Amino acid sequence: MFQALLSTIQNEASGVAAKGLAAKISQWHRIQASPMYREAAHWLHTTLRGWGLQSELESYPVAEGALAWGELLFDEWSCEEGWLDLLQPGGGALRLADYRAVPLSLLPRSISADGEYELVVVDGGDREEDYAGRDVAGRLVLTRSSPMSVHRMAIERFGAAGVIFDGMRSIPEICPPGDLPDDIQYSSWWWYGGETRAFGFALSPRAGAALRRRAAQSDRPLRLRARVRSRLAPGAIEAVSARIQGESDEEVLLMAHLCHPAPCANDNASGAAATMEVARALHELIGSGRLPRPRRSIRFLWVPEMTGTYLYLAHHEELIGRVVAALNLDMVGADQGLCGSVNMVVHTSDALPSFVGDLLEAIRDGMGGEYHTFNGRADPPLFRYASTPISNGSDHYILGDPSVGIPTPLIIEWPDRFYHTTADTIEKVSPVTLRRNMALAGTYIAFLASAGGREVAWLAREMNARFTEGLSRKLQSAVTAALGDERPIGAPWEARVAFRIDRQRAALADLRRLDPTFDPAPFQAAARASGELLWAQSREVLAGWHPVGREDLTAETAALVPRRLQRGPLSLGPHLARLPAAEREAAMAELRRHRGFDGLTADIALYWADGRRSLGEILDLVELETQTRSPGGLHAHFALLARLGLVELGGGGA
Asked: In Å, what is the CA distance from 589 to each residue of 531, 578, 619, 636, 649?
């Protein structure tokens, strides 16, 4: 069904060429709303036009306090200079950080500074007790905690002039503590309005440890000299789009974010480069007649992560209804051996059930043939791969919000040992990985651009096969856990099976995006029958295997109906900053009381809020999708959104 298409795209899209494009992109310090991001966008636009693609470069004004839907925007940042010296007792200075040499050594969005500062070492930094006995006013705070996490206490509460950050994330399986001693962890300031702004620098763990030892051994505070010349002012953010015209104005969309500091080669110079090479390959294949003109037009999009997607969609709401499906490429070039990554297909939320994830998985499963088994009877792939439910953290979760309604899976190589560090260099990007993911993405996009009745009939069968297999594995895993006397979590299994059948029904109906004449009823009946049969085989073990005494909302609270006021997910942190300090502290304390209700759970809860469902209904649906049930967290979250004017929370008639 797609093998000929896959082979054609594999032969045209070059992993070596894409790595060259990624190398070029990684040279720019691509901070959102900055001159160097703008340079990268202009180069990309010019390159696409040089290949003969119809490319547009758009510029959107941004400023502190402005909004794109419900997303708060920020000022543009530019920087000419930024360095930090340790002053030596006998004279002279030791250079600790230099923006010109290593851009990530200066925290993005640092304000201008010029002076000498004493150093204060702080453990933690996000709690008041961390500053007991320490006077940090007008000084630089050295901390391993992220700058934004200590900003509230160090800068706003106790008056520090700035921060020196020497932390490094760790993932024990691939990047244990101490693994990258000489690299710098990406961290940044974010200013949305009303904050006390500051400057800051980032050091490697080794350099930070040396500075800490000096401070501990000195009988007087260490002194540092800092100079930053920067500017924050209203500016602009650019988006680049290209389009291959199809037979209709319906579209499929392939996108990647272009931003991130230098070098950040896998994240996300690789995704931006891969999208460029797929655009070039499809343009060449269609223009030369090796692929037919598709039914639907194909759009390619490059934006700053999250912010750019909000801006592009807010400025092109007329396009949203024409996009039948999309795909997001984020970190698609990692050398799996070096980076420890796994090729991940991230599905859409159950709140927006679709065929897209199953199609992407089917194409990936068809990418075997990389080597033969000893008897030559199988052709398995030579890379690690997996599939996961919806996650946030990249642009797909904006497109895939039901209020936007564009089903968008994600391809990502994750985890990555070098993620968000100065070690994310072009040497960690593999042309083999790029070629594989470009073939996968290009086949997915080209298939959807041309799909009609024949393809939909195949895909419906493929979806049901995967549904049956997936539900069977879930139930058998639960049976194994139940018979092993493990503690049950989540909703009762009978409700889970009914939920999965209902979501499959809706996903099959979503195929009418591709063929309005498609009748999903026979396939929905088949999915229901197989689901009920699988449940019948597991009922004896699982019927009573669920938590008892589950928490619930009060009847009054459960009846409340949230109504969204803007399209798209909501970034809570920037909006919280608008509250008076005391109210902000109280709101954050209330949210911390419900730690099981995390950011992803909050996003999914918002997905399910369609203006008709009550909080009680949303509570149950979130549990069915995530296995997390937090009545207090759900109510606190929506009450806070209402307090911030981001949703309305009223009775069923609201």
From this structure: 43, 16, 21, 11, 21
Question: H helices within 152-253, ranges in order?
Answer: 205-217
- Cα 453 from Cα 295, distance rounded (Å): 12
Mean pLDDT of the chain: 96
The alpha carbon torsion through 641, 645, 650, 652 (nearest 10 deg) reads -90
* Residue whose C-alpha is closest to residue 31's, from 191, 157, 161, 168: 191
Contact 263, 184 (CB under 8 A): no
Q: Label residue 90 by pLDDT band (50, 70, 90).
A: confident
Arithmetic mean of pLDDT, 526-538? 98
> What confidence tens digit (pLDDT) does each residue in 371-401 have?
555 565 567 778 999 999 999 999 999 999 9
Copy the structure tokens of residue 380. 């398995």
Helix (H) or strand (E) holding 47: helix 35-50
d(C-alpha 421, C-alpha 348), whole Å: 28
Beta strands in 150-296 (DSSP E): 162-165, 199-202, 223-233, 235-244, 251-257
Q: What are phi and psi of 87, to 5 degrees?
A: -80, 130
Q: Is the pLDDT score of 286 beyond 80? A: yes
Provide the token pair at 560. Answer: 């409340």
Q: Tokens at residue 255, please?
A: 């996108």
In the chain, what are the domains? 3-73+236-450 (3.40.630.10), 81-231 (3.50.30.30), 460-542 (no CATH), 555-650 (no CATH)
Cα separation, 301 vs 560, in Å, equals 39
> Residue 210: exposed, middle, or buried by beta-carbon count in 10 A (0-12, 13-18, 19+)?
middle
% of the chain at pLDDT higher than 70: 98
Please compute the mean of the pLDDT values over residues 36-60 and round it to a whole number: 98
Helix (H, G, I), strand (E, B) or coil at 67: strand
Q: Residue 293 — very low, low, confident or very high, per pLDDT cuts 50/70/90?
A: very high
- Model confidence over 249-273: pLDDT tens digits? 999 999 999 999 999 999 999 999 9
| Sequence-separated (6 or more) residues with CB below 8 Å from residue 25 | 40, 44, 258, 269, 272, 273
Distance of alpha carbon 274 from alpha carbon 531, whole angstroms: 39
- The pair of three-digit structure tokens given for residue 239, joined into one six-digit string: 């988006």
**613 pLDDT higher than 50:** yes
Q: Which residues contact 90 (CB under 8 A, 6 or more apart)?
A: none
pTM of the model: 0.96
Structure tokens at 123: 């453990």
Predicted confidence at residue 654, as pLDDT, reads: 40
The label of the residue with tokens 């792939």 reads 381
Question: Is-contact 653 613, C-beta < 8 A?
Answer: no
Amino acid at site 221: P
